[in-house]
Design a protein that fits this description.
The chain is mainly alpha-helical. The chain folds into 3 domains: about 70 residues, no CATH class; about 50 residues, no CATH class; about 55 residues, Alpha-Beta Complex (CBS domain Like), CATH 3.90.1280. It contains 8 helices and 3 strands, in the order ααααααβαββα. A 3-stranded mixed beta sheet has the order 1-2-3. Strand 1, helix 7 and strand 2 form a beta-alpha-beta unit. Helix 1 packs across helix 2 and helix 4 runs antiparallel to helix 5. The chain starts with a helix and ends with a helix. It comes from Reticulomyxa filosa.
Length: about 180
């Protein structure tokens, strides 16, 4: 399609070659493919994935050296607008800003805590966050979730409480406290 205007230029005038090539690119490169694949793009992607893989393999000897060369010629730095540390500081400032207009606030405290925690994940280790098994409060499988049972769930103090069938090491599931507590 890119070479079409060059060949058409030999047959017709230059302006007509451009009009014809642009029309062909628009119709066969944009409109027809979108009309064919718009109804179910995932299915179309599935059925044409073999063709994309074939093109990747066939064009690899050309594309990889070219991309390597272009990366060397036009070296560019991938820059992030804010580092993780700067984002944490920004969230901290928003969370504790006394002049922050409450009517126009974009984040509530829970969202800020979530965002700050998600930025810290890359530095956390499981052993620092886990609760030792001897300190875990678990609940019996047949606990009735009446007011007394819900108080037991609440007293556990965790968002997820293991549920056991016969003994505390026979865990069969988890009780989500945020789902259970609002029942009453």
């Amino acid at each position: 399609m890119e070479a079409l205007p060059i060949f058409l230029d030999m047959l017709v005038s230059s302006w007509l070659a451009v009009v014809i090539s642009v029309t062909f690119v628009l119709v066969f490169g944009e409109i027809v493919p979108q009309a064919m694949f718009a109804s179910d793009p995932l299915k179309a992607g599935y059925y044409l994935s073999w063709f994309v893989r074939l093109l990747q393999v066939v064009l690899f000897p050309i594309c990889y050296p070219l991309s390597w060369l272009l990366d060397r010629i036009f070296a560019h730095q991938h820059q992030v607008a804010f580092t993780h540390k700067e984002m944490q500081t920004l969230f901290q400032v928003i969370a504790h800003d006394k002049d922050y207009d409450e009517t126009k606030k974009e984040f509530d405290k829970d969202e800020l805590m979530f965002l700050k925690g998600s930025l810290q994940l890359r530095h956390q280790k499981i052993k620092e966050e886990m609760v030792p098994w001897n300190k875990v409060k678990s609940l019996p499988y047949d606990l009735v979730l009446d007011l007394k049972g819900l108080k037991e769930v609440y007293k556990c103090g965790f968002s997820r409480v293991p549920v056991y069938r016969k003994h505390p090491n026979d865990v069969v599931g988890l009780c989500l406290t945020k789902v259970s507590i609002p029942l009453y």
